[in-house]
Backbone:
């Protein structure tokens, strides 16, 4: 075995050892989830050296440099760092926006709209690269295939989902079969499968290349409004429904694997954490729950919001989760030990409909019906910045992977890029 | 509001909940009518570039009222909102003599859509208080 290269992974922090073994080139991922701006690099390097046979004495300097770079990246994105300014206003949609997404390197973003199109934007120039035209009704859900980002998936109120080539604007496949609006659509990690969730109470699995339906997942008794593949293996799928339950499915079988019940109101969102060990769910019953993704046990219920919980997300390292609510606040909880509330973000004047962490985890981004988006310090709960300028409520928002750009999409028919 | 509440309002309506769709040319008074229904201030109403939704309780029914912008360039998108409509209210500006032909054409087209088949229609002859308004039988 011989070490060839160190690769850095920024979010969540880690290093990847590329090595050769019997003529084959292999990778080994080492998570450094505890790395923060106060970490002692020499200490970490020493313990890695002791644990890892691949790390020999002559590469220790190199290792320390790598760790230093990772640490700087976290500090750079820290709460005291960057301020955002309006960079571009994207004005070519003629009706309200729905959802938005960045590609992996933050160079392009997608916006869905009531005008039945999905647009692909160049973040740097603010120019429209392509308009994806073909849906017969509202384009609700949009996303890239990560990490390649050479395909786009869209879900529409016209009851179909489509795959597009974002460079040419060509529609490559259309997935029919749902009897209701498609409100969630996602590629799996390999990009060969597509999952869809619909108002017709079902979810479906499709072959991304042929467009053929593989399974219809039947079991929910109300609208399926959230869907996610597990970020690791990509063999499990979770769906959240207005019936108040979360279901887990397997891409290899059509029958439901598990139902997570306990919420007493509609599910508003459901997410895996990055290593797929936890599932977080938010509900209009005013609570959020954490589930063990293997034993399916409910690990915690947090109910400090005084109204409907509208969104939930995990930070990249999987240490914390954030929720947002109709009570105008967002909250951050520890998900590793005692599920303690770590911070409360108060200041929005109307409901907070979307929440996401900055990739490094130092900031929280919220989108609200009060026409502003806000950036908060995740440790103190203090508001760092108010992104104002939209003329209508903000429906969705996203952080680029590098943490250096934000997009917000509004009912005012515009999308804004902040840098 | 938010996208989630839009999805909630898209659900096929349970009992005692109705979906009302307000359509008509721009400046017909749809948003004013919506705000009036919701007992809101109507002194400042701006053109609707997308849509507005309000829920009103009336005689034990929850009325989800959708007010859709009427400018020419966004009229082709009216059928985005037809699904599950229980009542269509078509608002006409009675003082806008020049566009009577246009408004009647739009209405005729609307009524040919399959998704609105069987949906009760109320034609709302608005702005009757203006001296230039045509009396309703002339519509």
Residues:
């Amino acid at each position: 075995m011989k070490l060839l290269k160190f690769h850095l992974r920024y979010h969540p922090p880690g290093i990847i050892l590329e090595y050769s073994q019997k003529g084959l080139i292999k990778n080994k991922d080492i998570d450094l989830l505890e790395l923060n701006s106060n970490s002692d690099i020499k200490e970490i390097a020493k313990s890695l050296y002791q644990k890892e046979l691949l790390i020999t004495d002559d590469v220790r300097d190199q290792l320390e440099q790598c760790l230093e770079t990772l640490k700087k990246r976290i500090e750079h994105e820290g709460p005291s760092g960057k301020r955002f300014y309006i960079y571009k206003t994207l004005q070519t949609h003629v009706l309200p926006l729905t959802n938005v997404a960045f590609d992996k390197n933050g160079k392009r973003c997608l916006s869905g709209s009531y005008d039945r199109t999905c647009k692909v934007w160049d973040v740097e120039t603010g120019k429209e690269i392509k308009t994806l035209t073909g849906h017969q009704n509202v384009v609700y859900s949009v996303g890239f295939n990560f990490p390649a980002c050479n395909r786009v998936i869209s879900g529409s109120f016209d009851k179909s989902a489509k795959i597009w080539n974002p460079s040419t604007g060509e529609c490559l496949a259309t997935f029919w079969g749902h009897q209701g609006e498609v409100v969630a659509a996602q590629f799996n990690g390999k990009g060969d499968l597509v999952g869809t969730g619909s108002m017709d109470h079902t979810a479906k699995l499709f072959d991304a290349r042929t467009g053929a339906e593989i399974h219809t997942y039947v079991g929910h008794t109300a609208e399926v409004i959230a869907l996610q593949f597990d970020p690791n293996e990509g063999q499990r799928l979770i769906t959240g429904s207005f019936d108040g339950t979360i279901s887990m499915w397997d891409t290899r079988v059509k029958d439901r694997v598990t139902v997570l019940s306990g919420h007493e109101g509609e599910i508003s969102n459901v997410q895996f954490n990055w290593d797929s060990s936890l599932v977080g769910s938010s509900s209009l019953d005013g609570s959020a729950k954490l589930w063990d993704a293997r034993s399916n046990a409910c690990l915690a219920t947090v109910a400090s919001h005084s109204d409907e919980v509208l969104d939930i997300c995990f930070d990249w390292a999987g240490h914390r989760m954030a929720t947002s609510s109709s009570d105008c606040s967002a909250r951050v909880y520890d998900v590793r030990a005692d599920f303690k509330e770590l911070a409360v973000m108060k200041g929005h004047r109307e409901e907070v409909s979307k929440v996401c962490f900055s990739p490094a985890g130092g900031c929280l981004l919220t989108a609200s019906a009060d026409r502003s988006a806000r950036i908060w310090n995740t440790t103190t709960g203090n508001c760092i910045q108010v992104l104002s300028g939209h003329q209508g409520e903000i429906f969705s928002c996203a952080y680029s992977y590098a943490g250096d750009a934000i997009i917000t999409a509004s009912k005012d028919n515009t999308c804004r890029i902040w840098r | 509001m938010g996208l989630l509440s839009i999805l909630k309002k898209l659900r096929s309506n349970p009992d005692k909940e109705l979906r009302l769709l307000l359509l008509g040319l721009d400046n017909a008074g749809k948003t004013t009518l919506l705000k009036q229904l919701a007992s809101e201030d109507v002194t400042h109403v701006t053109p609707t570039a997308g849509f507005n939704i309000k829920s009103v309780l009336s005689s034990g029914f929850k009325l989800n009222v959708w007010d859709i912008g009427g400018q020419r360039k966004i009229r082709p998108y009216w059928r985005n909102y037809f699904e599950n409509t229980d009542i269509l209210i078509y608002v006409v500006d009675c003082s806008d003599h020049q566009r009577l032909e246009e408004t009647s054409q739009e209405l005729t087209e609307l009524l040919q859509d399959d998704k609105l088949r069987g949906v009760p229609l109320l034609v709302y002859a608005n702005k009757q208080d203006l001296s230039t308004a045509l009396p309703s039988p002339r519509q």
Notes: Residues 100-111 of chain B form the longest helix (12 residues). The interface with chain A takes residues 1-4, 7-8, 10-11, 49-51, 69, 73-74, 77, 79-80, 83 of chain B (CB under 8 Å).
